[in-house]
Amino acid sequence: MSPLLASVTTVVDRWRARDRAEETAHAGFVEALRDHGQAALERSGPPTHVTASAFVFDEDAAHVLLCFHGKGRFWVQPGGHLEAGDTSVEGAALRELQEETGVSPTLLQGIAVADLDHHTLGGGFGRCASHLDIGVVARVSDPTAPLVVSDESDAVAWWPVAALPPDSAPGLSDRLARVLAAR
Question: Of 74, 96, 135, 140, which sits most exposed with the smallest number of CB within 10 A?
Fold first, then answer.
């Protein structure tokens, strides 16, 4: 078993759902890992596969860092597909965070897995039908650090948790509430 598959399996095995949405998501993770093993972690694997994302907040959790996703055309937390060099879910989420926003993992505190989510994708995502996303939460020590916009996004910005942009990803508000409750 690869270190990344071991990391994902441990997260899924230890997860305790807090609501019906998380129960349903958890069942999707269990099914994908049972049916596809390592392939469930790969973009080239089944159309439903595991991804990792990072919910990054300022010190008092009043603001969250979001990207305007180029394919999806919505504001969402940084994240994406797992890669061959990733050895843990947390590491994959932090790699995606740095690639998509420029925020260095060295600026983060309180890094922990806080969310399991299964969401469907639109036609703009190619062969990907849905993602089984593991959300990692962290606080940034310096929210004034310069941000970088990647090729995958049109913008990166801090948004008030209480006033998310109207063109946010479907379900983002509910996920943020679960993540903040887990903090």
Answer: 74
What are the residues whose beta carbons fall under 8 Å from the beta carbon of 29, sequence distance 6 or more? 8, 12, 15, 50, 116, 118, 132
Locate all alpha helices (DSSP H) within the chain, ordered by sequence. 3-14, 20-36, 89-101, 172-182
> In CATH, which superfamily holds the domain spanning 3-182?
Nucleoside Triphosphate Pyrophosphohydrolase (3.90.79.10)
Strands 63-69 and 74-76: antiparallel
Residue 171 or residue 124, greater confidence? 171
Structure tokens that stand for 95 in this block: 């790699």
Residue 76 · residue 119 · CB < 8 Å = no
**What percentage of the chain carries pLDDT values higher than 70?**
93
Q: What is the C-alpha separation between 50 and 117, in angstroms, rounded? A: 10
The residue ranges of DSSP E strands in the chain, in sequence order, are 48-57, 63-69, 74-76, 79-81, 108-120, 130-140, 153-160
Select from 155, 22, 38 the least CA-distant residue to 100. 155
Q: What pLDDT, on the 0 to 100 scale, is given for residue 43?
A: 83
